[in-house]
Amino acid sequence: MYKIIASDLDGTLLMPDHKIAPYTRDVLQRLHNDGAYFVFATGRHHIDVANIRTNVGIPAFMITSNGARGHDADDNLVFSHNIEPTVVAKLIKMVKDDETITIHIYRENDWLLNRSDENLIKYYQKFGFRFTYFDPVSPPLEDIAKMFFTRRNHDYLISYEKAIIDKFSGQVSVAFSTPFSLEVMAAGVSKGEALKVVAELQGYSLDDCIAFGDGMNDVEMLSAAKKGLIMETAHARVKAALPNNEVIGSHVDEAVACYLEKYLLKV
């Protein structure tokens, strides 16, 4: 049996309402009792993820901000990677005058926005993780785990993806967590690199890992793990990047839990 199970959250482990379903919770708890070690690997902030972990009811490592932060089951910070302050300043300058883009910043204990986003307000009111606003004229530059830029137009964001890669080559990592969220971390940061660290901290290697995901920010993790499984609802770019990886069902049908129960749970 794989000793380490790593999973993305939104679009993968969570239901469409972004909550853990009872069946999935039960499977994860049974796997924990069988000796498996679970890892939540997500683009979300660690404060947000800690609430989900509490609801699941198992000790689990948290890889958050797409690998920029890692916390153990006791909430101890075990690794941290920040975007260089000069790069943060230049990224904000590049985007701040575009009124169609919302800029988000994740710091150690904060989620910051440059403007109001009513959809996010309604969404996060359900989960208790609140954002505050920052002034893009004098933005915070230190301790930035991740920046992300949102707009409900994937093609529009692709132009920013190209511009950021061209301008900051070798200084940042860039990935889409969803088609409408373009995410920027420090160079070398990914869920795949973070999973390698987590596995080694537990005395294992990537050969002991199985991983599940649906976004472009999951590609490195799905490539790095011994077995990486793609959700059927994954973006076409994910499937194109990993043509030989197995595709399972939808998060709507709790496909991760179904797979884990069928192939990993002891009889």
Automatic annotation (TrEMBL):
An MF annotation (GO) of this entry: phosphatase activity
Alphabetic keyword roster: Hydrolase, Magnesium, Metal-binding
Keyword Magnesium attributed: yes
Family: Belongs to the HAD-like hydrolase superfamily. Cof family.
Protein name: HMP-PP hydrolase Cof
Cofactor(s) the protein requires to work: Mg(2+)
Keyword Cytoplasm appears in the UniProt entry: no
